[in-house]
Amino acid sequence: MTKKKVVILHSNDMHGDFLPSVKDGKERGGLPRLSGYVNKVRKEEKNVIYAMAGDMFRGSIIDSEYMGLSTIDLVNTLDPDVAAIGNHEVDYGIAHLLFLEKCAAFPIINANLFVTLNNSRMFRPYMNIDVDGMRILFIGILTEEVLASTRMEKVIGSFINVEEAAKEVGIICDNYRTKDTDMTILLTHIGIEKDRELASLLKKDYGVDLIIGGHSHTFMDEMEIVNGIPIVQAGTGTGIIGRFDIVYDTWRNKITDLQWQCLDVDEDLCDNDSIMEELLSYYQTETDAKYRRIVTRFARRLTHPSRIEETEIGNLYADLLQEDSSFDIMFMGSGALRKKELGPIVEYQDMLENTPFDDVVHMVKVTGAQLRRMIMHIFRDEAWLGHTEFYQYSKGMRIVYRKSTHTLEELSFKGKPVEEEDTFLIAMQNYHFKSFTEFFGVPVQEVIANMKPRIVMTSVNNIVEEYFSIHQGLDAHVEGRIVILE
């Protein structure tokens, strides 16, 4: 028999989405349900591989309370065959990630993180998985955003562009793809746009058959084909899973049939895994006792539906951090706000899950001319694809930008146009300050020349908690601080 079937299941960007939600009256997602489906397919099919394309960590108090150790424990029970590193895997530090990797009962791969002192790899770059006489080669590729997260760790480096990543894929394929290799799959965490770019750069001789991606949280109805290579991604969280049904002809050494679908992981699809339920219940009980207390009540439920537009939650957070401060404008990273909805009752757990990246806040001085350059850089074309840093602004700021002509039609503060010679004190979290030149398009040394930057807050969440505790019935609205004209 020369034709064999392989089922490849995949998920990405779990982000601590451990607990189920209810959608259209059905319980959806959660680790017990996801594990239930993976187990179901493993029982039904002969050859099954389950792969994860990065970002297991962050988004849940269960994850942050144990600094990812709980997540590793839960994913050990989920039992993936291979996992790639995402940018949030380094959030607790490289040293801690290496510790977590030792705790993982599943292989973690990455081809382009290395120690700069001796150019040695930090992780195994690839993994061969043998099923039913077939050998499938997985290669892990990480987003260049990891450079921002590890900027203080000078001994860590990464390939910084897709072209170099493509060359690295070629090196691995040349050295480790043999006549025994039946399929080659890239397990990436670089976003759908970079996946397309990467696919277009890969030579046919590399023999890459599939790209399974993550990072951009892209929901897809069907796979995309670029340079003859199918590209897929399964949104975000545990409520959805991707599935390949592949027929491989071992005589002709080629895939003869390839079907892909994304499935809703709900009660119609499968039952819960009782073992995962029990383990998750333990962690939930432990964290609930500490974090299930009410810190405030909003006037209504506030939303943050998109990171590339002005939002209610964005305005609330930018305003409360700026209020009674020593700076004029708070630049609140849209991606730092992790919940799409918050309130009306806000528990301590909700608050921490919304802003899991608790760090210091820096204040810098910029001129009006520099501020204009920063805004133009933030609003560049790539922003609308969701792959760049975007910001929420505290009250007084108004930006009117026309996308079709790349024109900043209004930039004002407290009703007055921003003039080139004006000066403003602006604030941002540490992650954004450390990547100032990259994120704002203005060399950080230019800004340092205006005034020595200084830390004005040591903890965002301490400020938020205190503000919430003394303000009940908080409300916020989209006010036209950011206006995008087509």
Question: Strand percentage, roughly?
Answer: 25-35%
The number of domains is 2
Largest sheet: 6 strands, mixed
Briefly note the CATH topology name of the largest domain: Purple Acid Phosphatase, chain A, domain 2
Biggest sheet strand order reads: 6-5-4-1-16-17
**The CATH class of the largest domain:** Alpha Beta
List unreliable stretches of 5+ residues. none
Per the principal axes of the C-alpha atoms, what is the gross shape? Answer: globular
Radius of gyration: 23 Å
Assign the CATH architecture of the largest domain: 4-Layer Sandwich
CATH superfamily annotation of the largest domain: Metallo-dependent phosphatases
The span between the termini is 58 Å
Helix content: 25-40%
Mean pLDDT value: 92
Number of strands: 30
Q: Oligomeric form of this entry?
A: single chain
Sheet/helix structural class: alpha/beta
- What is the helix tally? 15
